[in-house]
Amino acid sequence: MECPVCESRLKHEKIEEVWVDICQEHGVWLDKGELDRIMESSKYRGQSEGLVRGLWSHTHSQF
Ligand SMILES: [Zn+2]
Q1: For 32, which DSSP code?
Q2: Which of 43, 46, 53, 59 is the most exposed place for a label (fewest CB within 10 A)?
Q3: Residues 20 and 34: beta-carbon distance below 8 Å
Q4: Tens-digit pLDDT profile for residues 26-56
């Protein structure tokens, strides 16, 4: 998959059993519902909440 903005190749990474596509320039691209699955993971509640917020702020959900 390529970044819809800059068309560079996205990095495919697994976060909490959910595969996400990451552009170094434009952040994380998630399918609708994928962020919910990450958020629902207990590991990302509490101590890693900041990470999820960070992800969310860079997330584009137009897919
Ligand atoms: Zn990009």
Answers
A1: T
A2: 46
A3: yes
A4: 888 877 677 777 777 655 555 445 555 555 5
With bands split at pLDDT 50, 70 and 90, how would you rate the model's confidence at 14? confident
61 neighbors 30 (Cβ within 8 angstroms): yes
Q: Distance, CA 45 to ligand 1 centroid (Å)?
A: 28
Cα-to-centroid distance, 23 and ligand 1 (Å): 5
Contact at 8 Å (CB) between 62 and 42?
no
The domain locations on the chain are 11-57
Helix%, strand%, coil% for the chain, nearest 5? 35, 25, 40
In the numeric block, which tokens belong to residue 15? 């976060």
Query: From the CA of 30, how far away is ligand 1's center (Å)?
Result: 13
